[in-house]
Design goal:
The protein has 196 residues and is α+β, with helices and mostly antiparallel strands. The protein has 5 helices and 12 strands. It folds into 2 domains: 39 residues, no CATH class; 148 residues, Jelly Rolls (Sandwich), CATH 2.60.120.10. The strands form 4 sheets. It has a 4-stranded antiparallel β-sheet with strand order 5-12-7-10. A 4-stranded antiparallel β-sheet has the order 6-11-8-9, with no helix packed on it. It has a two-stranded antiparallel sheet with strand order 1-4. Strand 2 and strand 3 form a beta hairpin. Helix 4 crosses helix 5.
Length: 196
Amino acid sequence: MGTLFYAKGRRSPSAKGGEFFTGDGGGFGRVWGSMNLLHFFRPPPLDPMLQVVSGASIFRDCTRGELETLRLHLHERHFLEGEIVFDEGEEGEGMYVVITGKLKAVRKGMLKKKTLGEIFPGDSFGEMAMLGASPRVATVVATEPTTVLAMFRPELLRLAEGRPRLGYKIAMGVARVLESRMRQTADGHLEKSLTA
């Protein structure tokens, strides 16, 4: 571990294995020895929720500073098993990232509800609402106690006004996720028609 020394004069070896760094010949110098300076300048670990958010496809291009800014605009919500996050047909206002727990997306069918898929930690859902007010295409329900972070469209617009680069990254992330889902849906329909 380094020790702080006061030294006058030139740079010279220290008995403790480091050196005096005296700059212009006066002031404080530091003896660092074999100490790893990066240890002192390494930022603290991300908040656990932001670690999950940083892994979500929508936010994968965001820097640490942008994620920390983003966190100020995300709202923590908790759902018990069986609780509905939103219903099919209702107007969408926001999107969500799952922090803990599990949910499922279901859609009304002719005779019964059809499960579209499960949603796990790190997954996002409800992104269409960020593009404009449109009806939800599915109902999302918690299948176990679940924590999500929500972001609502008005906040994204305010964020994009103040931090255009971050707003652009989020918009591109939303577009990327929606494009991927549309491609999966199209591939699924094509596969069904080819095997029918």
